[in-house]
Amino acid sequence: MISARDICKSFGGQQVLRKVSLDLLRGEVVAVIGPSGSGKSTFLRCLNHLETIDSGHLEIEGEVLAATDAAGVCSYVPEAQIRRIGRKMGMVFQSFNLFPHLTVLENVIEAPMVVKGLARAQIVPRAEALLAKVGLLEKRDSYPARLSGGQKQRVAIARALAMEPDILLFDEPTSALDPELTGEVLRTMRELAQEHMTMLVVTHEMGFAREVANRVAFMDRGELIESGPAAQFFAQPKHPRTQAFLHNML
Ligand SMILES: Nc1ncnc2c1ncn2[C@@H]1O[C@H](COP(=O)(O)OP(=O)(O)O)[C@@H](O)[C@H]1O
Ligand SMILES: [Mg+2]
């Protein structure tokens, strides 16, 4: 579903991604872990075209998004194609990013109406079904300010799903939550995994990575150090930097 090869990205003079390569297969859940500042968010943002890459090769569902030629020149496909490919992916952010002036239901139907041009009558039943799925149908007419962090994040997940993405990208979806609220969000994500949603999840939740992810990838200082099946990754990390990180985390 995603093929990222040798992705490089710098901000100013600072190289933030150093030849990062990662594949995401259909129905797979991959957790990306690593210390703060290692480039995890930047990598996700490059996949979703919230950032442009400097070099490397990016394919989403077999369609090239960006490629680098032998001379090292990186080019993107035309804008309309970028937008179309981008719609295959939904993103859930640490800070929820809900529209504060819209109700829960309006938050969920906004993008399908504006971006996909769907009629309100067409999308509302689907939005209500998604709110029921994340356990928040009774909050459909509430404003985000009246919700807990865990509820906001579940609305954000419903909102992402309303666009019917093939892939969901999560950037530390529980990091802004009080510990007692992370469980409800992780439970929703676990259910999506059981339904074989393809997900790439940047997370500090080692329990979630171990139990839900098929594969775990470790990033440090802009490099993807190692990745492997979750059980093997946690039981026998190969690289000393992975071992040190896990030693501190677990
Ligand atoms: N828009 C930006 N401009 C300049 N530097 C940035 C920008 N975004 C991220 N960085 C830098 O890139 C590095 C990696 O950041 P980030 O991808 O957010 O790491 P992580 O998500 O692993 O904590 C950090 O040093 C950060 O300061
Ligand atoms: Mg980050």
UniProtKB/TrEMBL annotation:
This is Amino acid ABC transporter ATP-binding protein. Signal peptide: none annotated. The keyword Coiled coil does not apply. One of its GO terms (molecular function) is ATP binding. Keywords: Amino-acid transport, ATP-binding, Cell membrane, Membrane, Nucleotide-binding, Transport. InterPro entries: AAA+_ATPase (IPR003593), ABC_ATPase_HisP-typ (IPR030679), ABC_transporter-like_ATP-bd (IPR003439), ABC_transporter-like_CS (IPR017871), MetN_ABC_transporter-like (IPR050086), P-loop_NTPase (IPR027417). Belongs to the ABC transporter superfamily. It comes from Comamonas endophytica. PANTHER family: AMINO ACID IMPORT ATP-BINDING PROTEIN, GLUTAMATE_ASPARTATE IMPORT ATP-BINDING PROTEIN GLTL. Its main location: membrane. Residues 2-246 form the ABC transporter domain. It is found in: Cell membrane. It is a peripheral membrane protein.
